[in-house]
Design goal:
The chain is mostly helical and 160 residues long. It is built from seven helices and three strands.
Length: 160
């Protein structure tokens, strides 16, 4: 929202008006701060990245600082911890193994968090209905099979 408002502004006042037009609340006091419509609190500009401090915004408006905004996308392969997929815990089997009430509570909360992460993952990739999910899954399966066939051909050639 800030980048879009900056690109349409020729002065700081125009930038503030553009931010208000996007639905943000603007607070100008000791520090410049914004609050989005669904936000609970104001966020100070200096708490954002270096290109979003108040002085950096003024430099960007005047043209002394050029920044190419990069879309914020989460990569699924961020770290080795993110690569590891967690499955839901079978609470009933753990209780039968002798786990206590505390473990049952922890496992319930853990399962809820994992389900929320899964839902967010699916929403970020626009896979909210079953048809789009099955289409993408079949496309991924097809690509996997094609790549597997190519790999087998290459391995056979290497063996020869």
């Amino acid at each position: 929202m800030i980048d879009n408002s900056l690109s349409a502004s020729k002065s700081f006042d125009e930038f503030i008006v553009a931010m208000k037009a996007t639905g943000c609340e603007v607070k100008q006091g000791k520090h410049l701060a914004f609050k989005i419509r669904s936000g609970k609190r104001f966020i100070r500009c200096d708490s954002l990245e270096n290109d979003y401090s108040e002085t950096a915004l003024l430099e960007r408006i005047s043209g002394r600082r050029v920044v190419t905004p990069q879309p914020k996308t989460k990569s699924f392969t961020q770290t080795t911890e993110a690569k590891k997929l967690n499955l839901l815990i079978d609470i009933q089997s753990k209780i039968q193994q002798g786990k206590g009430v505390g473990y049952e509570h922890w496992a319930s909360v853990f399962n809820l968090k994992e389900a929320a992460k899964t839902l967010i993952f699916l929403q970020e990739r626009d896979l909210t209905d079953y048809n789009s999910l099955s289409e993408k899954a079949s496309a991924a399966t097809k690509r996997f099979n094609e790549n597997s066939d190519r790999r087998k051909v290459v391995e056979n050639r290497l063996n020869e």
